[in-house]
Each structure stands twice: as structure tokens, then as C-alpha cells.
Amino acid sequence: MSFFERLKTEASVEWRAYTEHPFTEGLADGSLTEAAFRHYLVQDYLFLIEFARAYALAVYKSPRLADMREAAAGLSAILDVEMNLHVKLCAGWGLSPDDLERAPPAVEMLAYTRYVLDAGMRGDLLALKVALAPCVIGYAEIATRLASKPNAVAATNPYHVWIAEYAGAPYQEVAANARTHLDGLADRYVTPAREAELIAIFKEATRLEADFWEMGWRAGQR
Q1: Whole-model pTM?
Q2: Residue ranges of the Thiaminase-2/PQQC domain (predicted)?
Q3: Crossing angle for the helix pair 160-167 and 169-189, nearest 10 degrees?
Q4: For residue 222, how many C-alpha atoms fall within 13 Å in the half-sphere facing its CB?
């Protein structure tokens, strides 16, 4: 069993609560309220900015040149590709760049991103990548599952663009590369004693990701 699979197995309760949250089910069947999705989109924009900082930290924390290049590529992908795609998606929902820039950060967004940055500051590159994994790898798994549902990627589903973007080959490759790199770091640096610490980081990061969905879900219930 790979290191990432061991993390998922140990955090099975948290992982299921995150990847099968009602917010994600609402994306698949189109039942999610527009208010919930707009709130999520705004906070996810702010989230991406903080994740870019985490990848910049990963460059500094990298023990090898190859690790630095991997982190730098991730940073570039966020700043030069994913941010632009997100702004375009937001525009389709009536959210301008000014709307995104002026939005106050939600507590849930700050909680997760600060946790990731703190894990990286206190620990090494492996600890940081474990904290990042629920988002980077989890989104690919969630989108793949959602895309397999009837009519999830049909034009009649208002959320089909989001699902198709994360279920599509470009993002799936990003997630696969992140998983490969995480497993490679684990092969180099994990010891039996250390694994318990990394599982704890993964569980907490996954729980905070579920809270991010919950934030959007609650916004749609107001």
C-alpha cells in the first residue's frame, strides 16, 4: 500500500466526510443553491492565493533541486493557470475580479490555509505536502466520482464546468504527480515513529477541508 493510501485508510472517517460532503453531492445533481456556490467561489479564490504561498514555502523547504522544481511548477500552475481559470469561472457567475479582491476571508478559509502554512513552517517538505494533499489530490478524486454520476457533466447541470475542470486530464495529471511526489518523499523520510505524526496532520487537514465545504453549504441555507 502506498503512503497516500495509508494516510487515507487511517483517516477514512475524515476522508469520507470530506469527499462525500452534501456540498459535493449538490454539485453532481445540480441541487446546490447558487448562493452556496458563489460563496464557495469567492473563498476559493482567496484560498488559492494562500495555497500559492504554501507552494512558495515548499520551494524553500525543498532538500533537493528536483523538489524545488516540482514546487516551483506547482506555484506557477496556481498563479499562471488555475487563478485565471478560476476568475473566468467566477465571471460566469456574475463575480468580477473586484468582487473577489474585496471579499473578506471566511474563518474556515483562514483556518485551513493557516494550518497548512504552519505545518510547513514547523515541519519539513513532507509535512507540508501531507497538509496540502487533501486539497490537491482530494479534488481529483471528488471530481472523478462526481463525473461518473448521471447528468453531472451535462450542460443542464449548472456546475458541470467545475466538475469537468477537476475531472479533466490536465488536473488529474496534476493530482497524480502530487501523489507520486508525496509517495517519493515518504520513501525517503518516513519512519514508523514519524508516520503517526503525519497521519495526524493529514486527518486535521482533511477535517478542515470538510469544514470548507460546510461553510459553503451553510451559506446556501441562509
Answers
A1: 0.95
A2: 15-218
A3: 50
A4: 10
The whole-angstrom separation of Cα 123 and Cα 100 is 32
Supply angle C-alpha 133, 141, 57, rounded to 5: 20
Q: How far apart are CA 197 and CA 199, in angstroms?
A: 5
- Closest listed residue to residue 2, CA positions, set 204, 207, 181, 205: 181
Mean pLDDT of the region 7-35: 97
Closest CA to 213 of 4, 3, 6, 20: 20
Contact present, 127 and 198 (Cβ < 8 Å): yes
SS3 33: coil
- The highest-level CATH class for domain 3-219 is mainly alpha
Mean pLDDT (whole number) for 102-113: 96
Looking up cell 447558487 gives: 34
Catalytic residues: 135, 209
> What b/e sequence results for 72-81 when a residue is b if at least 16 CB atoms lie within 10 Å of its CB, and e otherwise?
eebbebbeee
CB-based contact 32:23 (threshold 8 Å): yes
Q: How does DSSP classify residue 1?
A: -
Enter the C-alpha cell of residue 9.
Answer: 485508510
Q: Among 213, 209, 162, 216, which residue's Cα sits nearest to residue 38?
A: 216
CA quadruple 81, 85, 88, 93: dihedral positive or negative? negative
Per the structure block, which three cell numbers stand in for 80?
A: 499562471
pLDDT for residue 222 is more than 70: no
pLDDT tens for residues 121-152? Answer: 999 999 999 999 999 999 999 999 999 999 99
Q: Using the predicted structure, report yes or no on whether residue 12 has a pLDDT greater than 90.
A: yes
Tell me the one-letter amino acid at 10.
Answer: E
